[in-house]
Amino acid sequence: MVMTDITTHRNLNPPRRHRTYPRVVKRTRHAQYRAKRATDTPTRHTGPPTITLIDKHHNMINLS
What we know:
By secondary structure, the chain is α+β, with helices and mostly antiparallel strands. It has a domain at 17-43. Helix content is 14%, strand content 12%. The strands form 2 sheets. A two-stranded antiparallel ribbon has the order 1-4. The protein has a two-stranded parallel sheet with strand order 2-3.
């Protein structure tokens, strides 16, 4: 019963937040990312980015 409650889908992976900021770490020991600075402030968005598709027939190059 307890194992079933822990492993439900909503408990395994919480919903991801929409953020825009560089990948940084607070302490750089063996990290591949740069150290965090005072100017590194996150920007949270209210939703996912808007994807705009281009008309592929309009941008084709005539090679013949």
